[in-house]
Each structure stands twice: as structure tokens, then as C-alpha cells.
Design a protein that fits this description.
Length: 462
């Protein structure tokens, strides 16, 4: 095990190489490791201790807020999920993190109050502070699943991961009802059929996926990676493909919502304070007609209405609104009243509008630089993988760090404390000095005040 690369090579079987976060996750399945060098065992033990301590601190803080809300009211759901549900949630987390560290468990307050089990970030980054919100459920009853789904407020903003959603995704692709602007790779579908067969109906596919996940959970310790090794490789890829595409879709729809109505905020008890939204402007009939005629991936003509931050609003036929994402450095910004062509990306059934991009745009890149006014800059938050590097895990409050100013804000400075990892030095913690006293690139010694891997925040002082 290397302290710099945080990799662990298992010396038996096919010798899989595990990242540090995967070795930590293996503990959930009762998998232990023996090391050739005592120092390597100490490194893993320190990582386990730090990970557990940080999780405990976040959960205790969240629990205090949740208990204020719960009181003695029996209407609230169970605070601690069953071991079966936790195991399925952990399996999905392991599947998403198999090739790169893409997801983390959501803090307790978000899990309980915001229907959020995981936070997920794409390889290129979504530009969201904590990643997309993902709710995980192992339900295979369509009735119970859809009742659960209906209870989620603002479903556009969340990714639902379940055997039923995966089965519906595959069925839509097979019958040409592509739920995303780009169709699923046919080669992946062919490998999936080779691995699981070709069930005739959606329900058969749901039961097949659900049974394969449950079978994997019955044999947890036969592989150092845990039960994910028992899930067929094409099904593992399908999980990642569904979540990756859905995370980008939910973020694009979130950007449209925030630009129109403003950002939501968190209450003290962890619940989301949603902005009051006006009713959709498109009628049910007009929306249904337009939706059938123009699925995701269609090219349509629209008329520009109003510019936004890294985007613009436009109107298509029947008055359907379209939020056109342009990105950080668009080739051009359509003017109000100008007619132009766009590629439809995502449909919001709740708001009855679409997100879109210019046909020549990098669709995966348009989220970068697209933020509504008042949104916190996502550039202050490093990718998820940066937070589990050994040198980051070794940081402790009170430690003095030789950093460098990477950005100057009205209320403080962003200071690089590790390569690619910046912390906030607030003006109140600058000992009377002003952000204007510093320039980008200036070396600056700071004191680490607080590091929170759950929310990906670092607070500094002089």
C-alpha cells in the first residue's frame, strides 16, 4: 500500500488493485486485510479512524437538528434504516465507485430530511458543491416504488436509483423511447443480454435485476471488493450509466429552476426550504403534443427571450419554454427575438419546460460556467476523489499550512492548501487585514480551523 497513491494490491486471485476508499468500504462487508509491512497497516488504521471520527461528528450534528423536528411525533419515518436497506445502499455506492471515486454517502440530515442517500459527481464535474442527490431503493413492487417516488418533492432535482428505474431505462432504449438526448450504447445492451438473458417484459427485467443484486448480497466476502464482484459486469456498467446521465439531467433542470425562481436553502433541521414556484405556463395539452413530437435529442427552432448567466431562455412552438445552456465561454449568445436551432436535452414534467444546448456545443461542458445569480461558486470545491488522498486525511485542525492565494472574493480569499484543494479564509479570520491586500498567486501561511469531508469545506485563519 502506497501512502502517496493510496493503492492496495491484494496478493491472491486476480490481484485487484483497490483505492483507499474501496479498502475502507470493504470493512462494511466484513473483509479484512493482512499487510506485509506494519506501516501499511498503520496507514489504513489511521484512515479508518479519521473516516469514522468525521462521520460520527457529522452524524451527531445532524442528529441534533433532526431530533428538534421529530420530538415525540410518531408520524415521522424510522431514523435508522434496516440492515438490508443499508446493505443495498452500500452495494450501489460500491458499484458507482468501482472505476473512480464518484459518490459518497450523504450526511444524516440530508438522508433523513431531503430523501438523499448518496451524492454523486460526474468525471468532468457537475459544478455542484456536493454533487447530485441520489436516492436508493431496492423495491421491486411497481406500486410501492411509484408511491415512494410520488412523495418526493421536486423530482427533477434528484436521481432515483432502483431496479425498476434501471429496467425502465433499458425498456425505453429497446423501444426507441430514449430518455436522454443520446441513446445508450448498443454494445452495452448486447453484453447485458448475454449476461442476464432477454426478459420479455419490464416486470421480468425488474425481478431479474433485483434478484441478482440480492444474490450478490448473500455472498459478501468471497472477493476483496465485496458483493459488487458478484454482480454481472454489464449490469454494473448500466448502474453507472443511468446515474451518470441522470445526475447531469437533474443538474441541468436544477439550473433552469434556480435561474427562474432562485436557490433553495436548508432549514436548521436539515429540510429543504423550496422557493415558491409559479404554475407552469404551458397547458397540459400543449405540453403533451410538443413532448410527443419533440423527444430528447430533437433539433427544434426557438426564439430567444431573455439572457441568463451562461444561458438564455427561449420559446418554442405552442409557447413551450426552453432553457438553453451556453457554458462558460459560448461561441455566441443569442439575442432577444432571434430565431435559432437548439438540441433538446431534458424535459421537466413538473415545470413543462426543456433544457437545451446549441447543436455545436459540448453538451457535457455546458454546465461549467452556468450558474444562476446568487449561486455559490462550485470552483471552491475539489472533486470527490481529492478528499480521500492520504495527505488530505492527515490534515488536522490547528495545523499551519504554507498555501497560495488562488482566488480573491469580496468576503475573503481562497487559499490552496493541497494541490487542487482550496480552503476559505474569511475576512473575519484575517486578523484585521482585507482581501484587497493580497493578489492571486501570493504565498500565504494559514492555520487550518476546520475540515469537513462530508460537506467538502475547509475553513482557514491567519
Amino acid at each position: 500500500m502506497s501512502s502517496t497513491r493510496a493503492r492496495l494490491r491484494v496478493l491472491h486471485g486476480d490481484q485487484p488493485v483497490l483505492r483507499l476508499d474501496q479498502a475502507l468500504s470493504a470493512r462494511f462487508w466484513g473483509i479484512a486485510f493482512a499487510f506485509e509491512a506494519p506501516g501499511h497497516a498503520d496507514l489504513l488504521a489511521r484512515a479508518v479512524l479519521r473516516d469514522s471520527a468525521l462521520s460520527l461528528a457529522v452524524d451527531l450534528s445532524d442528529l441534533a437538528r433532526i431530533l428538534e423536528r421529530i420530538g415525540a411525533d410518531e408520524r415521522f419515518p424510522t431514523l435508522v434504516p434496516t440492515l438490508k436497506n443499508r446493505a443495498f445502499e452500500r452495494l450501489m455506492l460500491d458499484l458507482l465507485n468501482e472505476e473512480r471515486e464518484a459518490a459518497v454517502l450523504a450526511p444524516l440530515a440530508q438522508d433523513y430530511s431531503q430523501k438523499t442517500d448518496l451524492r454523486y459527481d460526474t468525471a468532468r464535474g457537475l459544478g455542484r458543491q456536493r454533487g447530485a442527490r441520489v436516492q436508493v431503493t431496492s423495491l421491486t413492487s411497481v406500486v410501492l416504488h411509484d408511491e415512494k417516488r410520488a412523495r418526493i418533492h421536486h423530482r427533477d432535482k434528484i436521481v432515483l436509483l432502483s431496479p425498476i428505474e434501471l429496467a425502465r431505462f433499458v425498456d425505453d432504449e429497446l423501444h426507441g423511447r430514449h430518455p436522454f438526448h443520446a441513446p445508450l450504447d448498443r454494445e452495452l445492451l448486447n453484453r447485458l443480454w448475454s449476461a442476464v438473458g432477454t426478459p420479455a417484459t419490464v416486470l421480468e427485467l425488474v425481478n431479474d435485476f433485483g434478484q441478482r443484486f440480492q444474490n450478490a448480497l448473500q455472498d459478501r466476502a468471497s472477493d476483496p471488493r465485496g458483493p459488487l464482484a458478484r454482480v454481472p459486469a454489464p449490469l454494473r456498467e448500466l448502474v453507472r450509466e443511468w446515474v451518470d446521465r441522470s445526475a447531469a439531467r437533474s443538474t441541468r433542470l436544477l439550473r433552469a429552476y434556480e435561474d427562474r425562481f432562485g436557490q433553495d436553502s436548508s432549514r436548521r433541521d436539515g429540510r429543504m426550504q423550496h422557493r415558491r414556484a409559479a404554475p407552469p405556463t404551458t397547458s397540459d395539452d400543449d405540453w403533451s403534443v410538443f413532448r410527443r413530437a419533440h423527444p430528447s435529442g430533437s433539433l427544434v427552432r426557438v426564439r430567444g427571450v431573455s439572457p441568463a448567466s451562461g444561458a438564455c431562455w427561449a420559446v418554442a412552438e405552442s409557447g413551450v419554454e426552453v432553457y438553453v445552456l451556453l457554458g462558460a465561454a459560448p461561441e455566441r449568445v443569442p439575442a432577444s427575438g432571434e430565431e435559432f436551432e437548439v438540441l433538446l436535452l431534458d424535459a421537466s414534467e413538473e415545470r413543462r419546460w426543456y433544457t437545451a444546448a446549441l447543436p455545436s456545443a459540448d453538451v457535457d461542458g455546458v454546465l461549467h460556467g452556468t450558474r444562476p445569480s446568487g449561486a455559490k461558486p462550485a470552483s471552491t470545491h475539489a472533486p470527490l476523489a481529492a478528499w480521500t488522498r492520504p495527505e488530505v486525511l492527515a490534515l488536522v485542525p490547528g495545523q499551519r499550512i504554507a498555501g497560495r492565494v488562488v482566488k480573491r472574493l469580496d468576503y475573503g480569499l481562497l487559499v490552496d492548501v493541497q494541490p487542487g484543494l482550496a480552503g476559505l479564509l474569511h475576512e473575519k479570520a484575517m486578523s484585521g487585514r482585507s482581501p484587497r491586500d493580497f493578489a492571486v498567486g501570493d504565498p500565504l501561511e494559514v492555520v487550518l480551523q476546520r475540515i469537513d469531508t462530508a460537506t467538502r469545506r475547509i475553513e482557514l485563519a491567519l
